[in-house]
Amino acid sequence: MENPIETESEEQEQEQSNSQDSSTSSQDRHKWITEQDNLREKLITADSFTWKLPTISQIGAEDLRFVGGVDISFSKDDPSIACGTLVVLDFRTLQVVFQDFSFVTLSVPYVAGFLAFREAPVLLDILEKMKRSDNPFYPQLLMVDGNGILHPRGKCSTLYWNTLHKQSCTIFFSITICFGLACHIGVMANLPTVGIGKSLHHVDGLHHSRVRKLLEAKENSSKDFIPLVGCSGQTWGVAMRSTQGSIKPIYISTGHRISLQTATAIVQMTCKYRIPEPIRQADIRSRDYIRKFEMNARLKQID
């Protein structure tokens, strides 16, 4: 069963954010590349946490209890106005135990490959505010509406013919772990994070048509997960069918301090619909806050 209240696609949100001037100076881009590379050195792509995944037969005090989700929605009237939202769910019940939001006017434009420099600051501020208040529901793990290591950034590349898969593939001369929004937030907040993509970026020979063929292949028809293995042999994430019969997968990737195997298990345990519940609840609330903001703005204009 698909979610009756489907979340906005990344393409729609990107289209809204692109309506403002997306030009940036070479100096800005160089600064972002340097910062991204410095943060990448701190990235951990293996399990690095003290909690445990609960089992059906036994629930312990050390089990994962609070899972957060973050999302940003943009005003249709003014795409520079955004609402960042954080929700925290009880992992056992998937009920929301905490929520907070923040309206901001963004001055940084959307630039492909550097989304974190536009969206991460507002989300990190909400997390920091919660942490400073010693809130008992501070998340032990955070799901991010955006990619982790399944993330492109301009590199020198070469085209070669992959005889195994009978297709041409573009690979980086030097394969390095990419660094998306979920990685950026995870490293900055020192939190285990999981990237949840609603659409697929072209990374290391992976693209929509190739992944769709994998999902539709007879041998994969009963599988919930399809590993996203690039032409380089690197596994960047998984395409996951969240619900039975779904033809629209979500794309899971490691953000920080968690392995892909653990991330995938947790996402599967939090899916009622296509989108995992922490992200779905954050998305519903952020869009609702934006709608109310726009409605109030229109009423003031009438007055």
UniProtKB/TrEMBL annotation:
<feature type="compositionally biased region" description="Acidic residues">
    <location>
        <begin position="1"/>
        <end position="14"/>
    </location>
</feature>
<dbReference type="GO" id="GO:0006281">
    <property type="term" value="P:DNA repair"/>
</dbReference>
<dbReference type="GO" id="GO:0003727">
    <property type="term" value="F:single-stranded RNA binding"/>
</dbReference>
<dbReference type="GO" id="GO:0005730">
    <property type="term" value="C:nucleolus"/>
</dbReference>
<dbReference type="InterPro" id="IPR007581">
    <property type="entry name" value="Endonuclease-V"/>
</dbReference>
<dbReference type="GO" id="GO:0005737">
    <property type="term" value="C:cytoplasm"/>
</dbReference>
<keyword id="KW-0963">Cytoplasm</keyword>
<keyword id="KW-0540">Nuclease</keyword>
<feature type="region of interest" description="Disordered">
    <location>
        <begin position="1"/>
        <end position="30"/>
    </location>
</feature>
<keyword id="KW-0378">Hydrolase</keyword>
<protein>
    <recommendedName>
        <fullName>Endonuclease V</fullName>
    </recommendedName>
</protein>
<keyword id="KW-0255">Endonuclease</keyword>
<dbReference type="Pfam" id="PF04493">
    <property type="entry name" value="Endonuclease_5"/>
</dbReference>
<feature type="compositionally biased region" description="Low complexity">
    <location>
        <begin position="15"/>
        <end position="26"/>
    </location>
</feature>
<dbReference type="GO" id="GO:0016891">
    <property type="term" value="F:RNA endonuclease activity producing 5'-phosphomonoesters, hydrolytic mechanism"/>
</dbReference>
